[in-house]
Design goal:
Number of helices: 7
Number of strands: 10
Radius of gyration: 18 Å
Shape: globular
Distance between the termini: 23 Å
Strand content: 15-25%
């Protein structure tokens, strides 16, 4: 279930109409028989307010994996400009976890407890260099510390490697400093980073509604620079409504039975 790699499978076409307000009531947690776990990684943040409005309207809670990425407005996704946005999400009951502070991509292992990495944010953006285990742990912890400062809420002891890229050695290094990696289900790859010229919003919506199963972890972003026809908000609310109509309900990763977060807390 916790896929460590992308699985890009998109087909068909589908259009789902409104009924947003009539479908907004959430299934009580004790009655949730078919949970799914919607997660968002940070991005350019331009659609973050719209995504927050949809989640609030639909009474859906999610888990955000955050890095301090470049944004269309403000001083980074974990900067002061977006501080109020993160605080409001905490009040609404969402959960938070690390995505590395500088959105650090794993490139390759580089010996025992050393990793070749390439961040897409921060002062070393675009540079390839070596991080040891302590350096990678600091990347994870810096994001968690910043999230706690912004939200007043302890982040989950989880992380998502940018792009889902990691090795068994990197995963073990993260575990040594208290972080467990979380990927996504095959059908949970919602495709918002795919080129819209080949993968239309209608196709992505159809693929998700046909493929998602109970227990799946779903993954999207708070804005993707490269996609010309934005996935959010076009797909997000129809997807939530469609899944509710199929009897699904939404939980955060804190309640995922295979992650053992409640016991860890």
């Amino acid at each position: 279930m916790l896929s460590m790699r992308f699985l890009l499978c998109v087909a068909g076409g589908f259009a789902l109409a409104g009924l947003y307000h009539s479908q907004a009531s959430a299934t009580p947690a004790e009655d949730c028989k078919k949970p799914v776990y919607l997660t968002f990684d940070t991005g350019h943040m331009a659609v973050a307010p719209v995504i927050a409005d949809i989640l609030a309207r639909q009474k859906v809670v999610v888990t955000f994996f955050a890095a301090n990425e470049k944004t269309k407005e403000g001083d980074g996704s974990l900067g002061e400009h977006w501080g109020g946005w993160w605080r409001e999400r905490a009040k609404e009951g969402h959960e938070f976890a690390s995505h590395t502070f500088n959105h650090v991509y794993w490139v390759a292992d580089a010996g025992k407890d050393a990793f070749r990495v390439k961040p897409s944010a921060g002062s070393r953006q675009g540079e390839t260099y070596i991080l040891d285990r302590n350096g990678y742990c600091e990347e994870l912890s810096q994001s968690s510390r910043r999230l706690q400062m912004l939200t007043g809420k302890s982040p989950l002891p989880l992380f998502r490697a940018p792009g889902g890229r990691l090795s068994p050695s990197l995963e073990l290094a993260a575990k040594s400093c208290g972080y467990r990696h979380v990927g996504w289900a095959a059908a949970g790859f919602l495709g918002d980073e795919l080129p819209s010229e080949k993968f239309s919003n209608a196709m992505l919506l159809d693929k998700a509604l046909r493929g998602i199963r109970s227990g799946d972890i779903l993954m999207a972003h708070l804005g993707i620079w490269s996609r010309r026809d934005p996935w959010a908000p076009a797909v997000l609310e129809p997807l939530i409504v469609g899944l509710k109509q199929k009897g699904f309900c939404f939980k955060t990763l804190k309640d995922h039975p295979q992650l053992g977060i409640e016991q860890a807390f």
